[in-house]
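User: I'm writing a tutorial on reading structure tokens. Could you give me a worked example: one chain, its sequence, then its tokens, then a sentence or two explaining what the tokens reveal?
Assistant: Sure. Here is the example chain.
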Amino acid sequence: MNHKVLILHGPNLNLLGAREPDMYGAVTLAEIDRRLGEAAAERGVELRSFQSSSDGALIDAIHEAQDWADGIVFNPGAYTHSSYALRDAIAAIDLPTVEVHLSNVDAREAFRRRSVIAPVCVGKIAGFGWYSYLLSLDALLQLLGSQ
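And here are its predicted structure tokens:
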């Protein structure tokens, strides 16, 4: 079965490569999407990627995904800690979602250690830079394959 996955990037991730490279690395969002696209093609998976710094646009993308996707890989960025609306959008749809972060959020500021998104996700992968996305995609595909 060919799975379909939404890769959802939250606020400020469009600045990757230039934004705090010591924390987030030098890889751009376009490069992450390109690498994920190659990995998806090797796995026979259809990917759609979307980035927004607006929680409303992210919510709309989550709602629309229920019509076509089998799962979501989601980096909510700073919304991780504050957006109950995004949490509720994930809870409202019946799609397994993996929360992903480039940095190890648990080794950073105290406010970053609490995710309001994680309780409605099937898992969370963080701290491996851009590779966190690839690990999240593979974990989601493992889960989808076992269902």
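What the tokens reveal: The CA atoms of residues 102 and 129 lie 4 Å apart. The longest strand covers residues 4-9.
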